[in-house]
Amino acid sequence: MLDSACPRTGVRPLSINKAFTARAFDTATKDLGDLAQPGEQFYGINASNDGRVMIFAGGIPLERDGQVVGAVGVSGGTGVQDQAVAEAAASAF
Length: 93
Known about the structure:
The protein is α+β, with helices and mostly antiparallel strands. It contains 3 helices and 2 strands. It has a two-stranded antiparallel sheet with strand order 1-2. Strand 1 and strand 2 (67-73) form a beta hairpin. The longest helix is centred in the first third of the chain and has 18 residues, at 8-25. The chain is globular, with a radius of gyration of 13 Å.
C-alpha cells in the first residue's frame, strides 16, 4: 500500500537503507527505532551516516551459524507489513 507520502520512486532507496542499517548495527531497524526516540540512548542516530540510517520497521540482519552475514530491507507497505515481509525473508534465509 503506497500513498502520496511514499512515492514509488522512494521505496527502493528506503529498502536498501533499511538493509544497510540492519547490517551496520546488527540489529533490526524496528528495534533501533525504539531506541532512537527522544530521551533514548540512540536519539539522533538517524542523522548519522549521511542520512542512510533508517529507523523504520523492515530491516533485519541475516544470520548463519550465529554470525551476521547480511541483511534484508523491505519497504513499500506499512511498518507492520514491511516488518512481516522482512521477518519472512529472514526466516527463509
